[in-house]
Amino acid sequence: MTPQQTVEAFIGHWNSGDIDAMLALCADGIVYHNIPMEPVHGTAAMRSMVEGFMADIAKCDWETHAIAANGSTVLTERTDGFTFKDGRHAAIRVMGAFELGADGLITAWRDYFDMAEFAREFAPA
Amino acid sequence: MTPQQTVEAFIGHWNSGDIDAMLALCADGIVYHNIPMEPVHGTAAMRSMVEGFMADIAKCDWETHAIAANGSTVLTERTDGFTFKDGRHAAIRVMGAFELGADGLITAWRDYFDMAEFAREFAPA
Hints:
Number of strands of chain A: 6
Helix content of chain A: 25-40%
Number of helices of chain A: 4
Shape of chain A: globular
Strand content of chain A: 35-45%
Structural class of chain A: alpha+beta
Largest sheet of chain A: 6 strands, mixed
Radius of gyration of chain A: 14 Å
Oligomer: homodimer
Mean pLDDT of chain A: 97
Strand order of the largest sheet of chain A: 2-1-6-5-4-3
Low-confidence stretches of chain A: none
Distance between the termini of chain A: 41 Å
């Protein structure tokens, strides 16, 4: 897979709810950084964070508006949709940068968004 | 110029403080959207906004960490540095998406960042 195809597959795994397949595209030492928050280091910590985050979520519907690659870096513009188990829906406008290693795995993922938008969209019903 | 070269020149004009040259790369009907704020429509409104915004700023120092193009869309990952006239410094972590028209001018610019980071960095001394 090209770096862009890997990132497209990664986003596809979020949308199909396959956390194992999503993490299988990440290098063990990945740095996952939601920019307004602290970075998460490594796939074990990433799995823990994602599983906690997904506990109330039934389905992801992340729409990629734009994607472009330059060497082993892939940049995306997305709207990340989430359907909660109680039926509510959230949508976050986000851009994300991905860096891939020589083995084709994702070594860094940085998402840029407005924390207030996230808090508003994820506010309890 | 390629779309990527146009965006690189556009950022260069911010860094050299040349608002006229920056706007000359924008289509009249540009939509300039700092995502956490309302979009600005057209170069006249954009000039007014930028000139107001720049009133207290001596120098921009925007560093492009990554840039990638896909057709007429260019995506960037940056740290936008600002030196105020009173010597203070601000830095905003941002990703930006640019769309270019057939004539090579920028028709859309969307910047994604955390509004709380912006407010904190731009807080009065």
